[in-house]
Amino acid sequence: MPRQGNRLDGIFAQLLDRRQSRNQLRKLTTVPGGSADFSSNAYLSLSSQPAVQRAFLARLHAQAATGGPSLLGSGGSRLLDGNSSHAESIERTIAAFHQAPAGLLFNSAMDANVGLFGCVPQPGDVVVYDDLIHASVHDGMRLSRAGRRIPFAHSRVWERDSSSVAETKDSAPVGKSLDTVLQSLLQGPEGALFQSGARSVFIVVEGVYSMDGDLAPLAAIAECVESRLPGGNGYIIVDEAHSTGIFGDRGRGLVCELGLEDRVWARVLGFGKAMGCAGGLVLCTPTTRSYLINYARTLIYTTAMPFPSLASIEAAYDFLASGQAEPLLAHLRLLIRETHALLLALCARHSPPAELFRVSREEPRSPVIPVFTSRPRSLAEHCQRGGFMVRPIVAPTVPRGKERIRVCLHAGNTRGEVEGLMQALDAWLVAWKRGAVGGDGDAGSAGQEVSAPGGERGVKAKL
C-alpha cells in the first residue's frame, strides 16, 4: 500500500489544485442511462446494429466450438505467441478494401501513430505537420529521430489561402495564430534541402479533425507536395481515424473518395470511431509493413489483440463491404444537414453575441458540429440535465477563446432526439436573455471537458 501523505502525493495535489483553479480539471464520468448520445465518436452506431451483433457472436461461438486459441487473450506479442493466420487475413482484407498494398494491425489508432512516427523518420528527416494534428502524432514525433518537426497553419496549403478551413469569418479567431503555410515551408529558405531530395519530408494531416469536424484539403496538399518536392521525397501520411467508415465508397475513407491512394504514402485507420469497435491499422507498402514489425515499439512490446477484438473488426468491415451501412450513412448525412440548419435558425432567432453562441455558416460534411461558446460547461450541463449528452471542450484541448460544445451526430440518433436537443439549446438561450445564465465555473462531473481537438421556450424545433 502507498504511504499516506507522501511528498509526491503532495506535489500531485498542488498540480491538481492549480488545474482546478483554472477550471481545467479532468474527471472520469459515466453517461446516465437513457441519455441521447450527441457526444461519442460512434458515428454509424454499428455496435448497436443487430446484424453486426449477430455476426460478432457467431464468430465467437464458431471459435469456441473449434477448441482453438483462447477467446480471452492472444497469449503474447505478435512477434512471440500472439500472431495468427486470422489476424494476417484480416490485415489483407482491410488493405484490399481500402485499395492499399498492405496493412498492419495495432491495438489502437494511438498505438499506430506512436509506433509509425516513433520509428519511420530517420536522422535528418523532417516531419511537417498540421498545427491541429492529434496528440498521438506528437507523442510519436517526440520518440522519433527526425531532425526537425515543423508545424504549418491548420489546413493552409498555398500562400494565396486567406484563411484556414476552421477559421472562417464565422469562427471569430482569437489571439495570435500560426500563419506559416505548407507551400512556404516546402519552397522557402528552409526548403532547399527538401527540394534537393537530400532528406525525406513527412507531411502529416488528419482526414477529419475531431474538434472542428472540418476536412483536410488533401488534393491541394498532394499537389503542393508533388510540385514543391519533385524529387519524390515528400511522403504524405493521413490519419483517417475520423473519416474511416463515413467517407468514400462503402466507407473506404477520404483518401479513397478523392482517388489519392497512389499519392498518399501511408494511412492510419482507427476502428474506435465509426467502425464501432477498437484497434487501429497502418495502410502502407509491404516493405514498410516489414519495417514496422521490426522497429515499431508499440507493436513489438505489447500483447496482441485477442480473438474478440479481431472478430469485432471483421464483423464491422463485413457490414460495410456488403453495403448494409448505406441506409445508415444516408440517414446520418440527412441529420447533419438538418441539424446544422436548425442551429443556424437558433442563432437567427436569438441573435446571441458571437462569443456566447456561434455556429459556422458553412454546411458541415462530417458528423461533428462545434457550437462555439464562452460558457461551454453551463451549456453542456443544461443539455445533460435534459437527457442530451454533449460535452464541453475547453482549454487545453482547444485554444482559449475557442471553447465549445461538440455536437456529434450518429446514424442511431432519431429526428425526435435532434428536436429535443434543439429545444434544450433554445431554452438555454432564452434563459440567457432573461439574465439567468451565470458564469462558466466548475459544473461538476456533468460538465467536465474531454480530451482528446440563436424560439421562445416551449416552441418545438422542426426538422
Automatic annotation (TrEMBL):
Domain Aminotransferase class I/classII large: 37-425
Top-level taxon in the UniProt lineage: Eukaryota
Any one GO BP annotation for this protein: biotin biosynthetic process
Cofactor(s), names only, from the UniProt record: pyridoxal 5'-phosphate
Keyword annotations: Pyridoxal phosphate, Transferase
Segments for region (Disordered): 440-463
Keyword Transferase: yes
One MF annotation (Gene Ontology) recorded for this entry: pyridoxal phosphate binding
Entries under Pfam families matching the protein: Aminotran_1_2 (PF00155)
Alphabetized InterPro entries for the sequence: Aminotransferase_I/II_large (IPR004839), AON_synthase_class-II (IPR050087), PyrdxlP-dep_Trfase (IPR015424), PyrdxlP-dep_Trfase_major (IPR015421), PyrdxlP-dep_Trfase_small (IPR015422)
Family, per entry: Belongs to the class-II pyridoxal-phosphate-dependent aminotransferase family. BioF subfamily.
Protein's recorded name: PLP-dependent transferase
